[in-house]
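Quick illustration for those who missed Monday's session on complexes.
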Amino acid sequence: MRDTIGRFGGDEFAAILILPEGPQAAVTVVDKIRESMRRPFDLRGHEVTLTSSIGISVYPDDGDDPDTLIQYADTAMYRAKEAGRDAFRFFTAEMNAQSIARLDLEIALRRAIENEEFVLHFQPKVNIATGRISGAEALIRWRRPGHGMVSPALFIPLLEETGLIVRVGNWVLREACRKIAEWGKAGVGAVHLSVNVSGIQFFVGGLEEEVLKVMREFDIAPELLELELTESSLMSNAEETITVLQHLKALGIRISIDDFGTGYSSLAYLKRFPIDKLKIDIAFVREVTSNPDDAAIVLAIINMAHSMQLEVIAEGVEKDAQLAYLRRHNCDEMQGYLFSRPLPEEEFEQMLRQGQCLQSPQELGVLNQPTLLIVDDDAFMLDVLSDFLAQDGYRILTAQTAAEGFDLLAHNHVQVILCDQCMPSMSGTEFMERVKNLAPDTFRIMLSAYTDLSPIMEAINHGAIDRFYTKPWQGAVLRENIREGFRLQTQQHGTVLLASH
Ligand code: C2E
Ligand code: MG
Ligand code: MG
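Prediction with magnesium ion bound:
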């Protein structure tokens, strides 16, 4: 696809731009045109400058035939002239507002670089097995005058679009190395820091030279520096990336893939990238204890990482149950609000000096003790069932909602589950369907007071339920079958329907 430019007559020119990134991308082209027009030139010994006024119409939003589009672009151009010349205007007000906001932000960001308005915060990473801080991720913040602390999500994309990310990214790299060196000297210790790197820094920013330069400048051990790259930046130019990464790796720097699982990693490439670590994206961690698909993805990533001799870290860990799940499945490290938010440097330093540790999640209990989980929204029923079954020596856990049930399953090794069908937020059958995938080796028994058998039949046919009883249940039969459940739990369990009256 090509752009077209032509002269309309007099001092009027028209350009047709094809912008797959969307109409706002016209602003970049317009800026370039204005900039080159503004450049002074020599006219028979006189220095002359020109300005341009530019109007923009957008196909198909503003019109779908050439005449309309030309007419609207013309109208927009006159508005640009009215605005004092050397300006541009879109035909629609909404597009104008957007592009002006973007322009304001860009100007403010350029100023932020000059005035050094950026700061780094540090979010600790924790080794799950030892509970100790294993390092931190450096995350940029913008102390924008009049706006407080601005999140990177709001300005990184524009820094990338404008190419300013190279300067800012180099600043981040330099600051991170400076902190590593400072902490080393100040007796805080050898702190591993990771830095987020944008794909643009890779290709146009001369990342390799930059890294070498700052490492020499601050004389830091290379293994203390880790670069976090996203899948998309790795994949967008894979062959070149492999070369650059190999050089960085040869220096001794560590490399991890951020937000792993959200991009389209090619597994064929994955094994060729010289990476050390995968970071499981927060999107899969959020519901890892209750959503079987997320749990399956997290498990697959952990297993894949380990079988490729890579380390694996989960980000966005907020709950104890998530941590318990990750620990149980041998995830190496965690990062998230559960342990700490990203902190200003003094606070992070203090945390290191105090040797703050991650509390182990509520312990799993004796591993071999037979454990029964009872889920029922009716508290009275929970009491009756637990009292009755406690006589058989099981460790009994109770939950009044499916959510509590998932939490308990994340924390504990449960063999047999007894669940009521009729619960307000999630039915027993849905709970069991999920548990079937989350904890497949449990033996699952359903109790139901009501007679709509179809969801139950379906759950049985899916293998989500191993036994089914109607309420009121008969103590002796239930007891015997729970006992049998514990016996069968280790074996392959068949599906048997027992209705007791
Ligand atoms: P990221 O690299 O995936 O960083 C993790 C983000 O998750 C951070 O957001 C962090 O504050 C947030 N987070 C950590 N723990 C939790 C948690 O338990 N729950 C929730 N809900 N969020 C958690 P932040 O600091 O806003 O950064 C957002 C993104 O901006 C980063 O995602 C990264 O892609 C980018 N970024 C940040 N600093 C830089 C930088 O210096 N350079 C570049 N290129 N990108 C950066
Ligand atoms: Mg990151
Ligand atoms: Mg991430």
